[in-house]
Amino acid sequence: MAVSLDGFTAGPDQSLEHPFGTGAREALTSWMFETDRPGREQDAHLLGVLHANTGAHIMGRNMFGPGRGAWDEAWTGWWGDEPPYHAPVFVLTHHPRKPLPMAGGTTFEFVTDGIEAALERARAAAGEQDVEIAGGAATVRQYLRAGLLDELVLHLVPASLGAGERLLDGIRATLEPVEVIPSRTVTHLRYRVLDSGPN
User: Fold this and answer.
1) Of the candidates 93, 101, 85, which has an alpha carbon nearest to the alpha carbon of residue 65?
2) C-alpha 160: how far from its chain's center?
3) Distance CA 11, CA 131 (A)
4) Which residues are bridge partners to 198 per DSSP?
5) For residue 182, what pLDDT is reported?
6) 25 pLDDT above the threshold of 90
7) Distance CA 192, CA 161 (A)
């Protein structure tokens, strides 16, 4: 997850027009999408390595889309016809919805019976590969509170948002640094989660 220096993974006032919150998308994600900036190839290579062994993903409903309540069946996510996941994605929700196959091998499946059920289904789909908790922050916090994360990978962006959604609010965690990779625009941090739970 991309995180600001003051610990935010999204800014305030998330909406359809501003999925990362007001003023936050550019600050948090420009290093991923600006193709002409210095260091882009190094960051793209690292992201490829980090995701190479991912066989399934889990995300919260807020990461899939801005809606609440019953589904708008016309909404298929933020990513267009070919999302970047190329694997099964299990979306945590309180509202049932049929699986949504997309181009490029991504199928969104909607899980209404909690984080453990989503993890069980994702592990079965991934086989020997990794399961990645894609986000958002609230979903990552749920898995940390339950002690169900093995690693936490953060992309520390040299920006301060001042407000928004903090990744580790209400979380107690003991982390062991595994890898630190600096680039010209972001510092990639990989931690082993030794212990985690509610604060």
Assistant:
1) 93
2) 19
3) 26
4) 171
5) 85
6) no
7) 26
Beta-strand relationship, 171-182 and 187-198: antiparallel
First to last CA, the chain: 21
Cβ within 8 Å of residue 176, ≥6 positions away? 191, 192, 194
What is the model's pTM? 0.91
DSSP annotation of 168 reads T
The residue assigned the tokens 């941090």 is 189
Q: Which residue reads 């501003």 in tokens? A: 18
* pLDDT value, residue 27: 83
- 63-78 pLDDT tens trace: 998 888 899 999 999 8
Could you check whether the bond before residue 60 is cis, i.e. omega within 30 degrees of 0?
no
CA angle 33, 36, 39 (to 5 degrees): 80
Spatial separation of the C-alpha atoms in residues 104 and 119, rounded to whole Å: 22
The amino acid occupying position 136 is: G
Specify the DSSP element, H or E, that contains 30: helix 24-33
Kindly state the tokens that stand for 9.
């993974």
